[in-house]
Recover the amino acids of this structure.
């Protein structure tokens, strides 16, 4: 009996390792398709609505100093400015609204505040521009004519260098966003810089329990048979803070993947499967380069060893590609770019740790990622790569 069990171990291990590397390969193949074919030739649409057609809403708990800096960074032409907070605060240049403790709805955390504002903050503008407390609006000259307009992001270093490099790495992967306007459903959204037509926001709302309220909103629009999703990616890029600590980044990624898995029911069967494959690949991808050493140290463990090694090396090559694209996107210095390339295996593992945790032990609630005071955040005047 023991001999039978031991004999089955290599076969079982071989199957597990092949599943991991094939999941990653499938995810990378789809990413390549999006970047090389769907996004090819995408041109950022020109604004058709000016800053005066926008109402800005900042979401915060109680970060007064951080919000003040973000309000100060708004273009002067955006005059309709609101801060939706959990605690009273004084902000120059914006109206502060405190969400009452008595307010009840299905949404939680940020979604609860968004839903309260939808019901109680009047908007006579064409668009509501949703911003996080640390969103610095840069290069904004208006909104393209679409129902949902995603602005790009550029996190700044606020603490750990490793979390900052992980954000550079992540933004290299996210060049795929250029393909999202061509998809029937954007694969994710970023609520720290997204403009939504006021009429659509009023129709769809935020009253649903979710940990990824921004992505859930666009998925809900796509799932509503009475609404056709008109999505655009804008050229303008807004600055935000990178997670200040590795622990904060892990918690953030855990929430992202757990929320994505929980909300898959809003998607069609095809997109549901696609999202699951991508999430699994993200959670287990750091193991792929390590797996190439298994046949070397334990020969005979994996079926079709040579094919496995070639495929796992090819998968790891894309980890390097995303680092290079991230450095290009940021316009980073050669020294920082070299550091990222050297540390890419470590950075990719840290980037995926939260995804693995969120997949294995999905959180049912989350803590807001704490931001640091403005004077502790690295400032930059780098130009973001247009591609």
């Amino acid at each position: 009996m023991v001999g039978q069990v031991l004999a089955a171990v290599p076969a079982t291990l071989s199957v597990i390792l092949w599943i991991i590397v094939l999941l990653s390969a499938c995810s990378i193949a789809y990413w390549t398709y999006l970047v090389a074919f769907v996004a090819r030739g995408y041109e950022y649409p020109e604004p058709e609505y000016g800053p005066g057609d926008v109402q800005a809403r900042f979401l915060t708990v109680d970060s007064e100093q951080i919000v003040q800096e973000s309000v100060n960074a708004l273009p002067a032409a955006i005059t309709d400015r609101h801060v939706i907070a959990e605690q009273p605060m004084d902000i120059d240049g914006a109206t502060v609204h405190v969400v009452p403790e008595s307010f009840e709805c299905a949404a939680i955390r940020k979604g609860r505040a968004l839903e309260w504002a939808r019901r109680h903050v009047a908007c006579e503008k064409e668009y509501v521009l949703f911003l996080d407390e640390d969103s610095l609006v840069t290069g904004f000259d208006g909104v393209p004519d679409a129902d949902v307009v995603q602005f790009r992001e550029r996190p700044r270093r606020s603490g750990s260098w490793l979390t900052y490099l992980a954000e550079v790495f992540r933004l290299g992967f996210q060049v795929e966003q250029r393909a999202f306007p061509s998809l029937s459903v954007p694969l994710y959204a970023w609520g720290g810089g997204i403009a939504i037509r006021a009429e659509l926001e009023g129709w769809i709302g935020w009253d649903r329990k979710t940990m990824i309220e921004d992505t859930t909103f666009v998925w809900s629009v796509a799932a509503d048979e009475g609404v056709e999703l008109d999505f655009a990616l804008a050229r303008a890029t807004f600055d935000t803070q990178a997670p200040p600590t590795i622990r904060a980044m892990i918690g953030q990624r855990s929430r992202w993947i757990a929320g994505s898995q929980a909300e898959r029911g809003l998607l069609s069967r095809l997109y549901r499967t696609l999202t699951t494959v991508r999430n699994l690949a993200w959670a287990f991808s750091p193991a792929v380069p390590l797996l190439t050493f298994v046949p070397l140290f334990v020969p005979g463990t994996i079926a079709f060893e040579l094919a496995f090694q070639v495929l796992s090396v090819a998968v790891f090559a894309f980890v390097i590609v995303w680092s290079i694209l991230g450095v290009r996107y940021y316009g980073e210095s050669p020294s920082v770019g070299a550091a990222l390339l050297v540390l890419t295996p470590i950075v990719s593992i840290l980037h995926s740790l939260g995804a693995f945790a969120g997949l294995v032990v999905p959180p049912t609630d989350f803590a807001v990622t704490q931001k640091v005071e403005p004077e502790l955040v690295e400032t930059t005047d780098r130009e973001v790569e247009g591609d």
